[in-house]
Write a structure and sequence with these properties.
Strand content: 35-45%
Number of helices: 4
Distance between the termini: 65 Å
Number of strands: 11
């Protein structure tokens, strides 16, 4: 069991007693007090992890399961699928939504890194799915895809070299930085912005989502089932 050391210091005949615990707490205290600025600016392991982001291509798809009319309302039921970074055939997230109308919006948060964060100087970006909603809804009424502040399933192994607390700090702070653009440059992040794509969906089709290395999100292909 650890016992803090006592140091006695004499000041003009008065003895002051100090607990010396710095050696014991040291690194642990630093980790608890770490800010996102320190994490992004000083952590080499994080920079190495960001550098492993590969050029993204196909990242998932939306499959229209059915479209039906109830009264005067057209309802579209779709299955949203996100695929693995390592294997485009492996599904890591599946959710079904029924939304009024046939024009559906898919909302993502894009994070672009500059050369301060990317060791090889190549463009890197990651994305966080936010919500899906129809044209008769406001974005705030949309259905969530990923939980804000949580680690996305697609990147669950990206920061595995970091302590759990640092991983949680990174993901929770990304959303906060999106609302404070003046701080982005200080953290080696070129931009954090929303990217909404939408399409008029038809039953029997699959809509494939793709993203480029600079963070451009788009629907490129539409396949028959």
């Amino acid at each position: 069991m650890y016992r803090p050391k006592l140091i006695r210091v004499f000041f003009g005949g008065v003895t002051a007693v100090f607990l010396v615990a710095a050696a014991y707490f040291g690194r642990g205290f630093y980790q608890r007090a770490m800010t996102i600025h320190e994490l992004l600016g000083e952590n080499k392991e994080l920079k190495q992890a960001i550098s492993t982001l590969t050029t993204e291509d196909q990242i998932g798809y939306a499959k229209v399961i059915s479209q039906r009319t109830e009264g005067d309302h057209l309802l579209t039921t779709l299955r949203f699928v996100e695929t693995s970074r390592d294997d485009k055939t492996r599904k890591i997230l599946q959710k079904e939504y029924t939304i009024e109308g046939d024009v559906i919006h898919f909302d993502a948060l894009i994070v672009k890194f500059d050369d301060q964060m990317v060791m090889d100087g190549k463009a890197r970006a990651l994305y966080l799915w936010r919500r899906v909603y129809g044209e008769k809804m406001t974005p705030e009424q949309g259905f969530p895809i990923e939980e804000p502040g949580a680690e996305p399933k697609r990147y669950q192994d990206l920061l595995k070299v970091l302590p759990i607390k640092h991983q949680e700090l990174f993901w929770s702070s990304i959303w906060d930085l999106a609302n404070n653009p003046e701080q982005l440059g200080q953290h080696g992040i070129r931009a954090i912005y929303g990217n909404v794509i939408y399409s008029q969906l038809r039953e029997g089709l699959i809509y494939v989502f793709k993203i480029g290395p600079t963070g451009h999100l788009y629907v490129e292909d539409v396949f028959d089932m």
